[in-house]
Design brief:
Glycerol-3-phosphate (1)-acyltransferase, two-stranded antiparallel ribbon, 11 helices, 9 strands
Length: 298
């Protein structure tokens, strides 16, 4: 392991051990302070500010600054919750998740027996809520391993403590198909730049490269895409909203992948407009330019 990775792992482990000694309300307060520190240090602040300006050009600079400051605080809260995932998932009813709506859509998918693709974005504490749904039915996360193996091992252990399986992105495609055939639920994300391999679909009025994987899986296997979003209430608890499965008219029709990808991206945009502080603004979402009409990238 690189020296820098060892140092990062040691720091992450020390912070996690400190958080594990604290009750959840104090964890949230410490996490918000951590987010404020990230904000003051300017960690990817310019990227986030540019993204907010692209997404909300009609908002005042002051309003966008408020969203960004609260977003950093929420990032800190989410990060601080990770060591406690196993405990938070098993908390008493209403203690961590105040309420959830739309669970009947997941129950219908369970009865259908073809598995389900639980799709969301980098929005709220998506892993905690995916693990919470794992109390209802077996869930596997599709994850992109971190470059630091020490920190990745910590994350993997917290996911395991929360009772969910992990399937590595890309190399684990066969395992995804096996899990769906076994009627398991697959939790995955599709809201970051996919470079030239993605489908270019609208997001906040601009075409952006979006992963095709969820749509391709749904069309190939018949497993429904069921989107869910979690946001945090003022008291720190989470609210989970599960939506009906995305409609698929003809899986063999030309453009079916692009149409389904555009559909789930539009649903994410609608949620981000409701709770903009919950979405991950620090990623260059519109990094890859769409191809020009002549087939060349613009």
């Amino acid at each position: 392991m690189k020296l820098s990775h060892r140092l990062e792992t040691w720091m992450a482990r020390a912070l996690a051990n400190d958080l594990l000694r604290r009750p959840w309300p104090q964890v949230l307060k410490n996490g918000a302070r951590l987010g404020d520190l990230m904000h003051r240090l300017g960690i990817r602040r310019e990227v986030a500010a540019d993204n907010l300006a692209l997404a909300f050009p009609e908002a005042t600079a002051e309003r966008r600054a408020e969203i960004l400051a609260e977003h950093y605080r929420e990032l800190g809260r989410v990060a601080a919750e990770y060591p406690h995932m196993g405990t938070l998932v098993r908390a008493a009813e209403g203690e961590v998740v105040s309420h959830a709506t739309g669970l009947e859509h997941l129950e219908a998918a369970r009865r259908a027996g073809r598995g389900a693709l639980l799709l969301t974005g980098h929005y709220g504490h998506f892993e905690l809520l995916g693990a919470w749904l794992g109390r209802l039915h077996p869930v596997d996360f599709v994850v992109k391993p971190l470059s630091n193996p020490g920190v990745e091992a910590m994350l993997s252990s917290w996911r395991a403590e929360a009772g969910v399986g992990s399937i590595p992105l890309g190399a684990g495609v066969r395992r995804v198909f096996e899990a769906l055939r076994a009627n398991r639920w697959i939790a995955l994300l599709a809201d970051q730049d996919a470079r030239s391999h993605g489908a270019f679909v609208p997001f906040f009025g601009r075409l952006c490269s979006t992963p095709k994987g969820p749509a391709e899986l749904a069309l190939r296997t018949g497993a429904p895409i069921i989107m869910g979003f979690a946001h945090r209430e003022a008291d720190g608890r989470h609210v989970l909203e599960v939506h009906p499965p995305l409609a698929v008219s003809d899986p063999r029709a030309p453009g079916a992948v692009e149409s389904l990808t555009a559909g789930h991206t539009a649903m994410l945009e609608a949620e981000v407009r409701r709770y903009p502080e919950a979405w991950f603004w620090l990623h260059k979402r519109w990094k890859t330019a769409p191809p020009a009409p002549d087939g060349k990238e613009s």
